[in-house]
Amino acid sequence: MNFDALVALLHEGVGDVNNDNHIEGYAKIRHAYENGIRVAGNRLIDSMFFYYGIHDKLIENYESQIKEGFFPPKESVALQQEKIKEGFPSIALVTLPKSGSAYIANKMSKMFNLYQLLISFRAFPYDYIIPGLADIFAKGGLIYWSHLDASPHNLETLYQANIRKIHLHIRDPRQATLSWAHHLEKETIGISFIERFYTSPFIPEHYHTWPFERKLDWQIRTFLPQSIHWILEWLNIAEHDDRFDVQISEFAQLKNNPDAVLHNIVTFYAFPTKLEHNFDYSTKKGKDHYRKGELNEWMDVFTEQQIRVAEDLVPDKLKKRFSWT
Fold this sequence. Notes:
Blueprint: H1 3-18, H2 22-40, H3 44-67, H4 74-85, E1 91-95, H5 101-112, E2 115-116, H6 131-137, E3 142-146, H7 152-160, E4 165-170, H8 173-183, H9 212-240, E5 245-250, H10 251-256, H11 258-268, H12 273-276, H13 298-301, H14 304-313, H15 316-322
Parallel strand pairs: 1-3, 1-4, 2-3, 4-5
Helix pairs in contact: 1-2, 1-3, 2-3, 8-9, 9-14
């Protein structure tokens, strides 16, 4: 397929997704991605132009829906206006996959009745913020959580939308890698679930037929180094980019004292003080918790060779800073 045919396939896939035909739509988008890179061959710059060109087309589609009033949903607009009147800011949760992301977002949403608005594609490790949705989010009264990377586009879009406060939540990337591998084993994911199309590189076509050890090999060589780079980029922004105020939490803190993590987020975002003490931060085991939540399960599951590879990949400064064994 030539480039024009691939772009046409991309538009068709986006149309299917907008009409709630997710599986077929994302399958077409995946096909456009893979064949676009194949058409570009070894010419990396052409490949990257195609990769980012797809995101530009998707953003263009979203922006059109925003202008026409089709997005965001009407129920989110009404609730946002209500929460803005009550004095609630918007909460931006930037999280490493499988670090307790959904738990934090769902708990905060339930406690304060805040609508969760997705303002990016929620891809990993390369996500894209949609400027029009970022502007809506910046008005206040919403929650956004995603695995957003600290790319120049995303940072500039956040800054231009006046989104300066970010809560960064991370986890030992070795354990996150194991949890991600288990996540893909779930029936809710399956071999055709759309989440496969949100990762780069794409999950191999016959991945589901591999033994688990081989799957771990693949994730350790793709997901793990990407996670490490993702964490380092955000830590660099937290330490050196004066445009943003970044609060950091880590999975062990969430596991050992979730109430404190939630309370710190509320304090960081300066929730209405007259309301702050009226909410129950208590957490109970149940549907808000996912799988085992162990800290060092990877040490028992990885093979000796996988442990050596993983050990070599994680910088000592990260191990020391976050007490990762």
